[in-house]
Amino acid sequence: MSLTIKTIEDREVWQGFLKKSEFDYFLQSWQWGEFQSLGLGKKIFRLGFYDRGLLVGVCLAITEKTRFGEFIYIPRGPVFDWENLNLVDQIIFCLVNFFRNQDYFQLRIEPLILADNLKIAEKFTNARFVKAIKSIQVERAWILELQNSTEEELLKNMRKNTRYYIKRGQKSGLTVDFSTSIESLHEFLDLLEQTSARKKFLVASRDYLEKEFVFLKNNILQVATAKFAGKAVAAALIAFYGKEASYLHAATAEDTLKLEPSYYLQWECIRYAKSLGLSQYNFWGVVSEQNYHKNHPGYGYSNFKRGFGGELKTYLKPQDFVYKKIPYQLFKLQEWYRQKRDKVI
Question: Residue 343's pLDDT is what?
Answer without folding.
Answer: 60
